[in-house]
From TrEMBL:
Family: Belongs to the cystatin family.
InterPro entries: Cystatin_sf, Prot_inh_stefin
Species of provenance: Cirrhinus molitorella
Keyword terms, alphabetized: Protease inhibitor, Thiol protease inhibitor
A GO MF label: cysteine-type endopeptidase inhibitor activity
Keyword Coiled coil attached: no
Name of this chain's protein: Cystatin domain-containing protein
One CC-aspect GO term: cytosol
Length: 110
């Protein structure tokens, strides 16, 4: 995957990287919310976070590509997840999704 972007300024998005254990845990915590947004559009039980980018704001935004099936093009969803600051209990919320996407679609901020 050759997805790379960063505007090089404070608040800009990081380069796209393979997911970390921390990002996998975040995705699993909000899995239900992501699946609700693509409900009735896929019956897959697969949910594999692949790559992500992050943005530090008053909290942190994560943009994550999640694989939802193992078919030829690899049906994916691009999910934007916001993590509040620790003083606000670090709550997680899904603030947007782009669906359907394929495994090959680049992860682009939205």
């Amino acid at each position: 995957m050759s997805e790379q972007f960063s505007d090089g300024i404070c608040g800009g998005w990081s380069p796209v990287m393979p997911v970390t254990l921390e990002v996998i845990k975040i995705c699993l915590e909000v899995r239900h919310s992501i699946e609700e947004r693509v409900e009735n559009k896929t019956d897959s039980k697969i949910f594999i976070p692949l790559v992500y980018s992050s943005q530090t704001v008053a909290g942190k935004n994560y943009l994550v590509k999640v694989l939802l099936d193992g078919k030829e093009d690899g049906l994916c969803v691009h999910a934007k997840i916001y993590q509040a600051l620790p003083c606000h209990e670090g709550k997680l919320s899904v603030t947007g999704t782009h669906f359907p996407k394929t495994f090959y679609d680049p992860l682009i901020p939205f």
